[in-house]
């Protein structure tokens, strides 16, 4: 599928690995979501061949599939999992770009994190309401690290902010992803290519 995609788009060859990996991850997620909706509905969609639908139906009834499904369900419910954000259908990357236009500069990491994890206020004077306690702790850890370790003369740039976020606050990347960056994880890989 990626080879077909490559015939319709162009980019510098140094980005092949990053673009290929991003494409595969996005395609995998989309296919997984489609198959889950097929499984839930129990009806064959027009894009799926009848014999494939029948084979999937058989597979979904096996003990092997049920065991994997339960394991994934448990992982999704664990405390280490992802977090809620208040952006709705907008990605974190889209929200960051909107903030950049609004602020006239690139927002630093905690600004984007706060924007995407604090509930909308009725009045500006209302206190911040975070979507999860763990998220508020992460935000406060960042601010504490900056206050304790950066000289007041040091300018907190977006690059320095992201470096502190990754290395000192959330403990680096896990399986190629950094907590709190959302869809910007994909674009961050470009800067390393």
TrEMBL record:
Alphabetical list of InterPro entries matching this protein: Probable_transposase_24
Domain of life: Eukaryota
Protein name, UniProt field: Transposase
Organism listed in the record: Solanum stoloniferum
Phylogenetic placement of the source organism: Eukaryota, Viridiplantae, Streptophyta, Embryophyta, Tracheophyta
